């Protein structure tokens, strides 16, 4: 795909037409590309467990996160409702000496490691499968494709594409680096791993490792390596079930067009129906994969079934 940097509108329209999955699974579909992740694919993923080594791919959910308030996204606020102090002072009113602790958390659902649901992004007022956006997501939430529908589906064969190690310097890609289909293909070949129908693909850029050394800076919304808009065809053609990165926005930032904002999202979510994950911590998994040469594994990454939500926090777990 050749990009006219002055015409994001045209490029988005062309890619949306070429990559559309509207109607592929019927007019009532609420799963999008998760339809590719079937029982056989889960059995294939489960068969990859050899050592039993497990890796959490989630960042922590706390006040020390990267959010700076853009579009009212803040870091999680954790508050205790009952504490050991309350129990020790006898303030809880329980019999025979029993005490306990309780807590509450307040946070945007997309403030840390998360999935973007199918109701998260629209294209010219159209949501996934061509539905009218105003009839899908209202003040009551996503009435059609709420993330709760995906809760039992996101488990199967995970594949790490460590593009940072494969094509970057010192294992990391610089901010603003557009990852093309060629980079993805070269990485898969170098790692000896295949990518195809029903896979959950994880793309490591190395940006998270870099900001952990130097501070969050503009990690939440600033310049970042990420997928090029030109990968829209690859995302569609490979029939992957989902994709996640270690960056805030999945696609390269600044975006590749003038006067554009997240154009690849505008194709991938409402037209391809692709489940997109962001801010995943792939560092420990990547070290292990580099060590044993095995880049495919069992992966479970169920969203919280928050009724009507357009995104969800997640603690993905990879098992090798």
TrEMBL record:
EC number(s) per entry? 3.5.-.-
Q: Which UniProt keywords apply?
A: Hydrolase
| Gene3D superfamilies per UniProt | Putative cyclase
Q: Which GO terms describe its molecular function?
A: hydrolase activity
- The domain of life for this entry's organism is Bacteria
The top EC class, named as a word, is: hydrolase
Q: Does the keyword Protein biosynthesis apply?
A: no
This chain's protein is named Cyclase family protein
User: Origin organism of this chain?
Assistant: Streptomyces heliomycini
